[in-house]
Amino acid sequence: MKLLDGKVVVITGASRGIGMGIAKTFAGNGANVAFTYSSSEAPALALEKELMAHGVQAKAYKSNAASFAEAEQLVTQVLEDFGGRIDVLINNAGITKDNLLMRMSEEDFDTVIDINLKSVFNMTKAVQRTMLKQRQGSIINMSSVVGVKGNAGQTNYAASKAGMIGFTKSVALELGSRSIRCNAIAPGFIETEMTEKLDEKVVQGWRDGIPLKRGGTVQDIANACLFFASDLSAYVTGQVLNVDGGMLT
Ligand code: NAP
């Protein structure tokens, strides 16, 4: 018996990075995986095939998480395609548009808030009715240590990630009585495409400053998601789990 046998999981932004790692780990643990992408169609279709090789159902959907209407349409389609239930939602899609406040445009602020935070509202609203009917569900929001601590040059991103934490705790309070759990993960420095663009010397400096002396892996985050998605965390809701090698300790 695998940890997620037969569960239907929706993951936003799984065509790359952390989301892709979560999708692979979940399929390997028996979950049927519906996932979204924004523009990376070829990697998304390749992932769909790879997941199906685990003997589970998998499907890629092009859907902009920042759009309320597209989130609604997505969930309607997933319910049709996956037998009418959704057990787990992972709000993972996210972007950065870093700049000092002095130079940050209104557009870059709004875009980051829309894709990182409003998306969480859109998707949670869209699955809420289904989870209420089921009287069961787990929602996992991919925040960041930056949302806990703040970061110079990332006011938009930090605000979006901090907002996700307030949203997470509020949903946990609202929906707990129906056995719907909602938790956030705050990854530290995870080495993905998003971080590959950075200067290697700067990156090594960050690794040296982390108590566990390394950047995190996609698998480290996927493992935390597995805990929150499965019944191993049946009595855990409203929490923020820092997965950061001790960075914030
Ligand atoms: P990534 O490699 O850049 O991947 C981002 C994913 O989100 C891609 O699949 C992308 O799709 C999708 N996406 C972007 N905009 C979207 C939209 N509007 N609608 C739907 N999907 C969209 O990022 P990552 O490093 O894996 O990060 C994943 C999450 O973890 C993000 O929320 C990020 O803030 C958070 N996080 C990352 C780190 C880190 O160190 N990497 C640390 C803390 C938190 P396309 O491929 O089609 O563009």
Written overview of the protein:
- With 249 residues, the chain is of the alpha/beta class.
- It has a seven-stranded parallel sheet with strand order 3-2-1-4-5-6-7, with helices on both faces.
- The structure holds NADP nicotinamide-adenine-dinucleotide phosphate.
- NADP nicotinamide-adenine-dinucleotide phosphate binds next to helix 1, strand 2 and helix 7.
CATH class: Alpha Beta
Q: How many H/I helices? A: 9
Q: What spatial order of strands do you see in the largest sheet?
A: 3-2-1-4-5-6-7
Under the CATH scheme, which architecture would be assigned?
A: 3-Layer(aba) Sandwich
* Cofactors, ions and other ligands in the entry: NADP nicotinamide-adenine-dinucleotide phosphate
Low-confidence stretches: none
Calculate the terminal CA-CA distance, rounded to whole Å: 36 Å
Please indicate the percent range of residues in DSSP E strands (runs of 2 or more). 5-15%
Overall mean pLDDT stands at 97
Beta-strand segment tally: 7
Helix content: 40-55%
Radius of gyration: 17 Å
Give the CATH superfamily.
NAD(P)-binding Rossmann-like Domain
Number of domains: 1
> From N to C, what is the helix and strand string?
EHEHEHEHEHHEHHHE
| Structure classification | alpha/beta
Spatial shape: globular
Largest sheet: 7 strands, parallel
Task: Briefly note the CATH topology name.
Answer: Rossmann fold
Attribute tags:
249 residues, alpha/beta, Rossmann fold, seven-stranded parallel beta sheet, 47% helix, globular, binds NADP nicotinamide-adenine-dinucleotide phosphate
